[in-house]
Amino acid sequence: METITVTSPEATIKIGEQLGQLVQPGDLLLLDGDLGAGKTTLTKGLAKGLGIVGNVKSPTFTLIREYRQGRVPLYHMDVYRLENGGRKILAWMNTLMVTGSAWWNGQN
After folding, report:
1. C-alpha of 66 from chain center
2. Residue 29 contacts by C-beta under 8 Å, 6 or more apart in sequence?
3. Where do the structural domains in the chain lie, given as residue ranges?
4. Which CATH architecture has domain 9-99?
5. How far apart are CA 30 and CA 87, in angstroms?
6. Span 2-48, pLDDT tens digits
7. Radius of gyration of the chain (CA)
C-alpha cells in the first residue's frame, strides 16, 4: 500500500483528477474517512478527471448523487448513516459489478 499525504484541498482535487483519468468502466472506488476528511473534495477531482462539469456535492442527505455526463458515469454515495455501515448496499453494488450490469459499466 502506498500512502499519499496532501496538505490542501487543491492538492486533494488534483489527486482525484489524476485518478479520474485512470478509472475504467466497472471500477468501484470506496472512500473511508471521518466527516471532513476530504472524501467529497477527492470526488470533485475524480469528477473533473472523468470530464464531468458542474458542481459536485456531498450526498449526505440524498444518499446518492448521479453524474452521467462524463467519460464514465459517477455514482457518489454516502452510506455513512445507513444501518450496519451500508453493508447491504455495498453487497448489492458488488453483485451489480460481478454480473456486468450496464448501470455500472458506463453503457447507460
Report:
1. 10
2. 19, 23, 46
3. 9-99
4. 3-Layer(aba) Sandwich (3.40)
5. 12
6. 788 889 999 999 999 999 999 888 888 878 778 788 888 999 999 99
7. 14
